[in-house]
């Protein structure tokens, strides 16, 4: 299986590569549009700040490539947020794949949310073999509002989207590569998606 | 609901764990990777690696270790100890560390916190603060608590939050090594004054101490070393006890 992790200078992608390796597959890092288009599976990672990440995507033309991909694509953390309509962080438009906005947590809460929280109302083959209320690891200050495309929810002061899907595009707010055995199972389910 | 985190801390010197560890199932008691894997399997929520080596080879050895840990371990980990530049952090994150912690270097050059947060994001920048209560005032100390500064704990914590720290790791020098419990009064003040998570460190001796630091100390996470390394407390038992006391944990 040809797995490509989109490399646009956004943070810790080594961990995702290692997690895929633990599942018995190899992934390559690439920013090359042609290589990305030819992959069987594409992972779109990201940590950091939304508007500067969008600028990087635009400067490489990847903002035009990603929404046209036909194979399963998994956005992780900021990757998922950038696939939405609009991100409050840095007041930037996203890629517009998911029809939801990304907004900041209430300042009465500790922000960023750091740690393990539950996912529930699971609605996708991404969660095959995963129990309702499973724990996953999250680190984020902005969240995707609930919408019709939500396939998992989490509660942190508000109920929000912790996973989302539209056609071949998937997004998870949590870090499957850091979410212990459950995370690896979710990653494995994605790699089996068609 | 976000759960409270239990974080074992491993002291590292020249790529090996220091302080004895008492794990009969370890083939190599000095191998941090093997120990980290065991902790991940036993229910630790995160790990902290604190590098105390001071050799010239340090940076390379640590980067190699980080890479080996990231290859094997499927929970998040933080790396600290002598990190003093954007370049240091870049190397560690690229090798697979999830977060880094800075301590003395932030006191010497507070702008470093801003630079790191701007470049890598607040979520991966932990500021570690060692403090000692002297005549009723909590003062920040450097070099593992040996060198006093004129910084007040609460003011310094607020300042680094404003500069972009994503989390505070507060070690009480009064409590560290005593096994008599965490500095819960100071922690509760810190936790209510800050809008970022606070990790309690120093003083863990029994399971009740963890309950107290989450309930009275309002800590978001608790870090300990010897009680875990010497198997005085099993993480699973600890989490069951915490849950019985109404503290939400991942079990």
Walkthrough of the structure:
The complex is a heterodimer of chains A (194) and B (251). By secondary structure, chain A is an alpha/beta fold. Chain A has one domain (3-192): Class I glutamine amidotransferase (GATase) domain (Rossmann fold). In chain A, 25% of the residues lie in helices and 33% in strands. Chain A has 6 helices and 13 strands. The mean pLDDT of chain A is 95. Chain B is of the alpha/beta class and 251 residues long. Chain B has one domain: Alpha-Beta Barrel (TIM Barrel). Helices cover 37% and strands 24% of the residues of chain B. Chain B has 10 helices and 11 strands. Chain B has an 8-stranded parallel barrel with strand order 1-3-4-5-6-9-10-11, surrounded by 7 helices. In chain B, helix 1 packs parallel to helix 2 (58-72). Chain B is globular. The two termini of chain B are 13 Å apart. The mean pLDDT of chain B is 92. The interface between A and B is large, with 36 and 35 residues.
Summarize the structure.
Chain A has helices spanning 14-22, 33-38, 50-60, 62-65, 78-82, 180-192, and strands at residues 3-6, 27-30, 41-44, 73-76, 84-87, 92-93, 98-104, 113-119, 134-140, 142-144, 150-155, 159-166, 169-172. With 194 residues, chain A is an alpha/beta fold. Chain A has one domain (3-192): 3-Layer(aba) Sandwich (Rossmann fold), CATH 3.40.50.
Please state the average pLDDT score of chain B: 92
The neighbouring-strand order within the major sheet of chain B is 1-3-4-5-6-9-10-11
Shape of chain A: globular
- Oligomeric status of the shown chains? heterodimer
Biggest β-sheet description of chain A? 7 strands, mixed
